[in-house]
Amino acid sequence: MKIKISEARELLNALITITSGNHTVVTKAGNGDKVSTQVPYTLDDKARWNLTKNLGLAERLVKDADKAREGIIRELSGGSGNISREENPGVYQQAVERISALENNSESAPFVRVKVSGLKISADNPVPGILVSTLRPILEEDIPVDASEVIPD
Question: For residues 10 and 46, is the Cβ–Cβ distance under 8 A?
Fold first, then answer.
């Protein structure tokens, strides 16, 4: 799958959150008091495994891009790693343009699909919509949409 580096960064953050993130569950203790507990998101086994594989792939793309970005900065700064906007606006602008081009560059990685049903989205497992939206490039929509749910033009 081809993905822009900027999108890979967003995907990486979403994958980190859903594979290691927690949500709060309120339960009752033995004495009847309410207790808040942090529990991981419930995912089916295949979804968790595929999300974890994708996490490694996205992480590799982002690390490679970060090395390239550091190389651009080292090159343009003469090895110092510092580019001052005030002292050298031309070099600073060149760095911005090259890093922007790097972030818009598409790379290929063998991401695997994850079924939406595998995320087990429910009131008991409140996967935030922003996570689902960010995971969209790798999601397989296996939950059918009823025609009555579609908003007409």
Answer: no
- Write out the two tokens for 48: 């968790």
Tell me the per-residue pLDDT of 56-113, one tens digit each, with 9 for 90 and over: 999 999 999 999 999 999 999 888 888 888 888 898 999 999 999 999 999 999 999 9
**Which tokens belong to 107?**
């790379």
Residues 6+ apart with CB under 8 A from 42: 120, 124, 125
- Would you kindly state where each structural domain of the chain is located, as residue ranges? 2-25+35-143
Q: How many residues appear in the chain?
A: 153
CB 137 within 8 A of CB 7: yes
Sign for the CA dihedral angle at 115, 119, 123, 129 comes to negative
| pLDDT tens-digit map of 118-150 | 999 887 888 889 999 999 999 999 988 888 888
Pick from 101, 147, 91, 103: which is nearest to 7 by CA? 103
Bridge partners, residue 99, by sequence: none
